[in-house]
Amino acid sequence: xxxxxxxxxxxxxxxxxxxxxxxxxxxxxxxxxxxxxxxxxxxxxxxxxxxxxxxxxxxxxxxxxxxxxxxxxxxxxxxxxxxxxxxxxxxxxxxxxxxxxxxxxxxxxxxxxxxxxxxxxxxxxxxxxxxxxxxxxxxxxxxxxxxxxxxxxxxxxxxxxxxxxxxxxxxxxxxxxxxxxxxxxxxxxxxxxxxxxxxxxxxxxxxxxxxxxxxxxxxxxxxxxxxxxxxxxxxxxxxxxxxxxxxxxxxxxxxxxxxxxxxxxxxxxxxxxxxxxxxxxxxxxxxxxxxxxxxxxxxxxxxxxxxxxxxxxxxxxxxxxxxxxxxxxxxx
Length: 332
Known about the structure:
Shape: globular
Mean pLDDT: 89
Strand content: 5-15%
GO molecular function, one term: ATP hydrolysis activity
Number of domains: 2
Number of helices: 13
Pfam family, one: AAA_lid_2
Largest sheet: 5 strands, parallel
Oligomer: single chain
Keywords: ATP-binding, Nucleotide-binding
Radius of gyration: 21 Å
InterPro entries: AAA+_ATPase, ATPase_AAA-3, CbbQ/NirQ/NorQ/GpvN, ChlI/MoxR_AAA_lid, P-loop_NTPase
Protein name: ATPase
Strand order of the largest sheet: 2-5-8-1-9
CATH class of the largest domain: Alpha Beta
């Protein structure tokens, strides 16, 4: 790690990328935060909302500001798995087969309208998201590091969409529901783009680099989690499994994703340790999309978000001085 990056904290790094991205975006601060947390922890993000509310613009703007390699895949019903991962082609000039890498070979991959692709094509991302490598014609190929999939999807009520299977949803660290902007934010959007019609992701400039990201990721890894906070996190996850409203609760992968996200939020907040509020703040976006509700819950129109929020209301956060449990700085 180079010394020039040692002085930039995760807080400063987040503020830098946030300020650049929000030159174009208005009212999507939560999305920018979650994308940044995912980048620091090796997670992936699913954005859901109706067309026209800047899901793709958000993803592309974040990718450009990060300075990492970026590809976008428009996931339509005719997209094949090989169109995502790649294939082998025969070169007549050499008489040999050559691997043609697909668009998944980038640091940040935007899978636009992922639930318009067929389940077979959706599943092509599973290996990439879970293992950070793909298999092309029996050969395994490593993907770049860092690797972040930002997928957008339309609500299931819309025509021509396929529901993501449980295994696919579980690969996403966060699912964020992007709604319409408030009146004030929409006034700002109108004014900003009226005065500068060319404003868009192409106007975003790189403000951080790979060294910055590596330094921040190390700071996250070093963030301390006291045992009472871990117990609180696991109590929340277990409660989603025991809930009378769920058929399937949050997985062990979900628990790890929530732990890592809480550590990243603590680092961005300028702390060396996780507090219960870090866990509570992120629990809905990490856990809700992984739950499978039972028939009773569906008939009562209870949502998975309702279920996680109810769990959070029933579990008391640990009290006491969490900071006092933080060990002294270790010798380098």
